[in-house]
Task: structure prediction
Amino acid sequence: MGSMIGQRLGAYQLEAELGRGSMGIVYLARHVTQGKTFAIKVLLDALVTDSSFITRFTREARIVSALHHPNLVSVYEAGREGESLYFVMEYFPGATAGQLLRERKRLPYGEVVEIAAQTADALAYAHAAGRLVHRDIKPENILVDRWRRVKVLDFGLARIEGLDTITRQGTVVGSLYYVSPEQLLGRKLDGRTDVYALGVSMYEMLTGQRPYRGQTLPEMSDAILYGAATPPSKLEPSIPRSLEAIIARAMARDLSQRYANAGELLTALRGLQAALAPGGATTAPTQPMATPVASEAPKVNEYDVRAGRERRDGREAQDTQIDLSGANGQTPIAPDTNAPVLTARPHLPSAFQPALQRTLRTSLRPTTLEPAPNSPQPNHSPRPTDSQD
Result:
């Protein structure tokens, strides 16, 4: 798909490309009459005839447009211009936690706790109000501005209770490094799988390393199911043991040992802030970060979906990533206090509706995970099924 910079979609003029991924491109756009700035996600031309991708794309728009939380990106409307399908989002100048991590190697624990607390707040709301599991929580899908305000991005892989499955049987969706043990085992998922992924993200932000690593998919899945993670404080001595305990509980393999929901994790994080901060302050910092974040995230094509690899810091590792964000998790989309006057819960064009009623096999096939040879076997074979979707 070539660039659409300079073209119009409805009432929006596309001015710059913010990023692109396996499913779509995100543009910086300006409303031609109001002069206000937005982010517009456009489905790739090659996918406009593929019903499975149309389903994911339009479902993401429906999910986010129905959710209203300060830490979730807002969707204002969706439409079609010729053969182009798109939806309009609020624009938020900031950088992903993944970008910050690459620039600074690791983040201070106070900053990580605040980022994680706002993310947990958003997840608690989405789990309760939207009846959904995000399934792709990771630093690249957590957007942060210079005041440490957070937005959770990319609901393209979310599982919604009551909707038909899109994922092909025997596959795992999301980035393997953050996939929970129950996902690998094909068990029914709930909000605790997002709690696990947030725990892994916290570990990575604090230490600059992921808790589980492997050179192959079987090694990686085996590490997640049976491996032992190095305590964060051994990698970064400044990390409080109380924070280390919170991360350990969030990442517990045994669901009964993990936080029961994102709200419990939020309570623990705010309690930690109260215990560690002078005067018991539990609110977000009132001063900007020492290192300002650029207003626009650089265009980074981090994921090569066809090769099935994630490229980071010069290393390559196998990954089951299916990046449906339209911007490889690099999209600076977020709040605009001067949003246009649109319906609170916009409806997708009627042309979108048939695709939402069909479940077809996707042409983008994630890798099936199998246990490593001669590794201990779980009670249930780690073969995911459609029940998790």
Residues 162-171, 281-389 have pLDDT under 50 and may be disordered. Residues 95-318 form a domain with the Transferase(Phosphotransferase); domain 1 fold (CATH 1.10.510.10). The first strand starts at residue 8 and ends at 9.
